[in-house]
Design a protein that fits this description.
15 strands; 2 helices; Immunoglobulin-like; four-stranded mixed β-sheet; six-stranded mixed β-sheet; 2 domains; mainly beta; 220 residues; 43% strand; 7% helix
Amino acid sequence: MLSDLDSRVIREFGILNTQIQTKYYGIPYPGTYLVNESGTVVAKFFNRQYQVRETAPSMLRMGFNLPLNPASLSHAEVGSAGVTVHASLMANELHPQQRSFIYVALEMDKGLHVYGDPLPDGYVSTEVHATGAEGLEFGKPQFPPTKPFKIEGIEDEFHTFEGKIEIVIPIISTIREAGTTTIDLTVGFQACSSEMCYLPRIEKLCLELTTGPNVDSRER
């Protein structure tokens, strides 16, 4: 805990919380800095609302790009016809106002690709949808950049994904009761090569989630 008279250090870091105009004025926006072994800040996580906190696995994954360990996470996978779909939730438990991320990965055999937007008529774009119990709020899926792709004899330029891609879905829980629930994921795509396309596919995956009651912010 830092004794910060007149919020001098907070102001130097540029994190003075200007949203609070009560007797608590002078406190910082809640956040976390990640520092590597050389003492360099490699990532930071800040929120406008003091109640919102990222889970530790989420910050470590996004800040240090640590590999996913399915054995320690809620994980599901399904695959056929050259494409395997994985889904992992970066939290074993979510308390009210904790934010985490769902990683949906598509692994494609060499020579295959799936489509992103924008896309000419007649082709199927890759889509991911998440649903869950009341009290789970999902953000917009975040896709990686696409790569341009041309098919000989067709003037249109396509936007594609190939190899292995990860799609990230933010999630916040407002559930205040301890218990278990599920997150349902629907992943739609069409896998193609330069010579042919498979039929469009819709894969469904389910992740388990434990919810917990409010905890003191010092324990988060």
